[in-house]
Design a protein that fits this description.
With 201 residues, the protein is mainly α. It has 10 helices and 4 strands, in the order ββαββααααααααα. The radius of gyration is 18 Å and the shape is elongated. The protein starts with 5 loop residues before the first strand and ends in a 5-residue tail after the last helix.
């Protein structure tokens, strides 16, 4: 089974290192992660100053070497574009929870207003909430997101207009989608986080 997972690492501050998988697969191979966690339990843990363990060779590196432009893991895992994009984005679990809360509040077809007609039935035609959350986390740009979920061009352009409205401070666009006043702040914050990490580039 494959799924994206973000692992919190303590280095005095709570840092989040989000792992991604080689380009041919859309999520993390949890068997690699479980091996990493097993090693921690059996005394093969990385030193707190080098808490990130390369999944393939077990080499431990400092968080500062993640996504620094120079591969430190044997297979280049620490420089994978999905890992580096996901590290800047909200954790997948948080994104999935946010999407789920909008569906619970507005009904199973609500996200059709954002993602288009394929977002009916609680995002099932797009692969479900978890798959959409993973794509939002790992896709470098909105074009990559559209390609990952096979969105129609018209739906992608509508989504872009929503993000651009948020970027320009136009809350009227969000209100026109039926977002409640009590939700506006959370929705704006979520969309701005994606914009600020290059989603519209």
């Amino acid at each position: 089974m494959v799924r994206v997972l973000c692992t919190s690492l303590a280095l005095g501050l709570a840092l989040t290192a989000c792992a991604a998988f080689p380009r041919a697969v859309m999520a993390i191979d949890l068997s690699r992660l479980y091996g990493h966690l097993s090693a921690k339990r059996t005394g093969g843990a990385c030193h707190p100053y080098e808490p990130f363990k390369c999944p393939e060779d077990g080499h431990c590196i400092s968080i500062q070497y993640l996504c620094d432009g120079a591969p430190d893991c044997h297979d280049g895992y620490d420089e994978d574009s999905r890992l580096c994009t996901a590290a800047k984005r909200p954790p997948v679990e948080e994104t999935a929870s946010f999407l789920q809360s909008l569906l619970a509040s507005h009904g199973p077809n609500y996200l059709e207003k954002l993602f288009g007609s394929k977002a009916r039935d609680a995002l099932e035609p797009l692969g479900g909430v978890q798959k959409v959350a993973i794509a939002l986390s790992e896709s470098q740009t909105i074009e990559d997101f559209g390609a990952a979920l096979h969105l129609m061009r018209s739906d992608l352009e509508h989504l872009r207009s929503v993000f651009m409205a948020v970027e320009n401070g136009d809350m009227g666009m969000l209100k026109s989608l039926g977002i409640k006043d009590s939700e506006l702040g959370d929705v704006k914050f979520f969309l701005e986080k994606l914009v600020n990490t290059g989603f519209l580039d």
